[in-house]
Specification:
With 123 residues, the protein is mostly helical. It has a single domain, classed as Flagellar protein FliS (Four Helix Bundle (Hemerythrin (Met), subunit A), Up-down Bundle). It has helices at 5-15, 19-43, 46-65, 73-94, 100-122. The radius of gyration is 16 Å and the shape is globular.
Length: 123
């Protein structure tokens, strides 16, 4: 069976990523899903709102799972992730997107911070 060269490239790219690069990709996906939820709210597309927000919750859950509590910053990130999760959950339950933009902005700031940290770590 012949494999798709693009799929092979993607698999190889993921296998050779640093943990910092992978973290940035996770944040990109979180921001993307929250943006999709925001667009779905604008269209009143309830199934898409639910799908995007549930994916966002799963991403937050995964981010929490990566924390190393040997470092004090992990406690702060854990609290922040709990806040993100709570806002996303409430947005989905109440079908109210008013707080999502703030979460997108905060996640974008974190992504930029981790991008810069990755760049500095690589020299």
């Amino acid at each position: 069976m012949m494999t798709n060269p693009y799929d092979t490239y993607k698999q190889q790219s993921v296998k050779t990523m640093t943990s910092g690069q992978m973290l940035v990709l996770v944040y990109n996906e979180l921001i993307k899903q929250l943006g999709l939820a925001q667009q779905a709210f604008d269209k009143n597309d309830i199934p898409e709102i639910n799908r995007s927000l549930q994916k966002s919750q799963l991403i937050i859950h995964e981010l929490k799972g990566t924390l190393n509590f040997d470092y004090s910053i992990s406690n702060n990130l854990n609290d922040l992730y709990d806040y993100f999760y709570s806002v996303i959950l409430n947005a989905n339950i109440k079908k109210d997107s008013s707080e999502l933009q703030r979460i997108i902005e905060m996640a974008s700031e974190l992504k930029e911070t981790f991008t810069e940290a990755e760049r500095l770590a690589r020299g």
